[in-house]
Amino acid sequence: MAAFPTAPRLLFDGYGRKPDPGVRRGDMESGPAKQLKTKARVLHTRPVQYLLTSKTDLDAFETWFESTINMGADWFDWTDPYDNTVKTARIVGGQIDLQPQRKMLDRWVATFQIETWGR
């Protein structure tokens, strides 16, 4: 399986975790709503931002995204900074946002969402 590139540096601004609900909730005629666990495992979505510190890093990241992981459709190995374990991940919807940080266009921030199985 492909691995996430090593050059991008994770920016902790905006980083978090949001698990998909694994519970179905149903309202009752009276009393509290009932809830039922419906999934044995759930996807966790993480908003991330990575700093690319050179045009070479940006080009390598875009090549990895377009060719290696098939525009974000394929799964890859990603090290989660929360627990420093390698998880199987993919980019949600294949959507990344690349924003330059300087007029020289030599520093970029890539913003996207990563989803993994489990926490």
Question: In summary, what is this structure?
Answer:
This protein is mainly beta and 119 residues long. It is 12% helix and 45% strand.
Which SSEs are present, and which pair or pack?
Elements: E1 9-11, E2 18-19, E3 23-26, E4 34-37, E5 43-52, H1 55-68, E6 76-80, E7 85-100, E8 108-117
Antiparallel strand pairs: 1-5, 2-5, 3-4, 5-8, 6-7, 7-8
Characterise this structure:
The protein has 119 residues and is mainly beta. The protein has one domain: Elongation Factor Tu (Ef-tu), domain 3. Helices cover 12% and strands 45% of the residues. Strand 7 and strand 8 (108-117) form a beta hairpin. It is elongated and about 65 Å long. The two termini are 20 Å apart. The mean pLDDT is 87.
Strand content: over 45%
In total, the number of domains comes to 1
Q: What is the CA–CA distance across the termini? A: 20 Å
What is the helical fraction, as a range of percent? 10-25%
Q: Quaternary arrangement of the chains shown?
A: single chain
Features:
elongated, 119 residues, single chain, Elongation Factor Tu (Ef-tu), domain 3, two-stranded antiparallel sheet, mainly beta
